[in-house]
């Protein structure tokens, strides 16, 4: 048995510093393996995940996972982190992917054959239920770990990401708050925990507090791309466009090498340009920094960013050339996934953008079929009330049936937080509703558009986009 070891700490003090091993063991984060190398690699993977950055000198996360498996094939927590990253990535599901299903089953079987700690067993159980779509239950199990092991970074980050998928905004904030006092400055990676907390704060509209905590994290480590991301959200939510542009430009050198998050931070940057109506500038960022990583990696967060960016530009009437078709090459294989409704609707945007009617229909029918069958899957349980009407609203809008799109979307608008994502990401649904209402045949719905824009203006008083839409609504109204 070895204690949980900070990889950074190992490099600093050397593996011979037994007292440091003991210090971690005293923290209670025991890893059941006889391989010191496996412990180091576990920590290397966790560090890269927690910091959103593949360290190529270590072989990246994939390289480290391969070496980890070789160092100790029977190391249960090695299987936990490997399977957990696959599942949290939301690009694969055990329902359709036999290899992933086998890996999860093998992890569970392995854990049952070993004398593990209670913490390790809870990690296995959390992934087991996550794989079966029981995301809230998985969070409960990670919380159970954190109550007794507040510095278990893997439990903290897995639960943080899963709350995000669930749209559990307060839980995302409070989960970190509950362990926050234990993450003192001497604990490795503690500044990143400030970043996680700051994001929970911004998603619960505590903008000033969020910005303060994110700046505290950046004062310790300016390369913390997630804390940069929090500040990008604060500026987005307040429509502080010039401040947002300046901040992203000034900090770009610090986060552009965070390969797992850079695309998303560029997405935030481009949103400011869409706000300003500077579409060419937004497209330049898209072409240089948002499309290439998505087309190369197919990572789901990158896919979501691509679909969302193109759809917002589409709503603004921007000509997009072949970009939808390029994106279709990445999204089409996910037509039947139905892992997260949030992902589904973003895949759908790309199908609609590329005018691929057959794939659009396939996504809708397979989602309907899965939603009809009784299942324990949390996301699928939301499909009839939220996922399907949301997807159908996009389809109706694209078919020119704007009144129908409003009828589908307006009643569920306050419930859509349950499909997950951030407030900034889900804003594309609000924009769709406004555009659909603006273009409706019914005068009542066009009046609704004006009301929705007043509401938007109250929340983001400096938004140039809202001003443009209000002018458009006034013009539509005067013509009626
Ligand atoms: Fe974001």
From TrEMBL:
Keywords: Repeat, Signal, TPR repeat. Residues 1-15 form the signal peptide. Belongs to the TTC38 family. This is Tetratricopeptide repeat protein 38. It comes from Cyanoderma ruficeps (rufous-capped babbler). The lineage of its organism: Eukaryota, Metazoa, Chordata, Craniata, Vertebrata.
